[in-house]
């Protein structure tokens, strides 16, 4: 990482920062990951991040496969291998996606056509939407309409927020080289 990580068991300077640390530890099951150890250089930022990502990861109505396709595709497009390493196993464990589907998320060309995909229409719509939001920001009407035809308004907002959130995550990870993965040109060999 381009900055030193904070200690695995940090002592925070004041009660407010200690409360932030406790909230992050609670969400993480008692152990900080490298991302937390970078964010906790700025406890108020870490606190907002923790709350927002908790909502994205655990409080939406999206299936694991839908959420993780969005997250994993953003990781691939942004070369955020730390993110991919953490989320690919979650996608792989999803009962909705085959190993062929996981590999497609990893290797599909940008804006891949539906006929080329082992993913069903719903998951293909998420992949195309993630590509558009990440690569172009402005989503073409045809891509949006495919997504809208597969999901409720609530789910569209949740997918949009997930893609947006993980673009933020990936940019933070890559800019600071969290997890020291920037030198890689792709996923770890075990993927």
UniProtKB/TrEMBL annotation:
Gene3D superfamilies the UniProt entry points to: AhpD-like
InterPro entries tied to this protein: AhpD-like, CMD-like
Entry superkingdom: Eukaryota
Domain Carboxymuconolactone decarboxylase-like intervals: 43-100
Entry-linked Pfam families: CMD
GO terms assigned for molecular function: peroxiredoxin activity
Protein name: Carboxymuconolactone decarboxylase-like domain-containing protein
Lineage: Eukaryota, Fungi, Dikarya, Ascomycota, Pezizomycotina
């Amino acid at each position: 990482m381009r900055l030193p990580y904070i200690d695995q068991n940090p002592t925070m300077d004041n009660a407010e920062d200690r409360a932030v640390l406790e909230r992050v530890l609670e969400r993480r099951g008692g152990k900080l990951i490298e991302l937390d150890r970078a964010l906790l250089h700025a406890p108020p930022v870490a606190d907002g991040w923790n709350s927002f990502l908790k909502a994205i990861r655990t409080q939406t109505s999206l299936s694991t496969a839908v959420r993780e396709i969005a997250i994993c595709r953003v990781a691939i497009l942004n070369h955020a291998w730390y993110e991919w390493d953490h989320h690919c196993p979650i996608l792989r464990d999803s009962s909705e996606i085959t190993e062929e589907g996981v590999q497609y998320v990893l290797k599909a060309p940008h804006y891949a056509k539906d006929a080329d995909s082992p993913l069903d229409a719903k998951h293909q719509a998420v992949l195309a939407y993630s590509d558009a939001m990440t690569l172009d920001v402005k989503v073409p009407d045809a891509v949006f309409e495919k997504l809208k035809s597969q999901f409720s308004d609530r789910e569209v907002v949740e997918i949009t927020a997930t893609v947006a959130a993980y673009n933020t995550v990936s940019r933070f990870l890559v800019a600071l080289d969290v997890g020291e993965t920037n030198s890689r040109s792709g996923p770890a060999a075990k993927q």
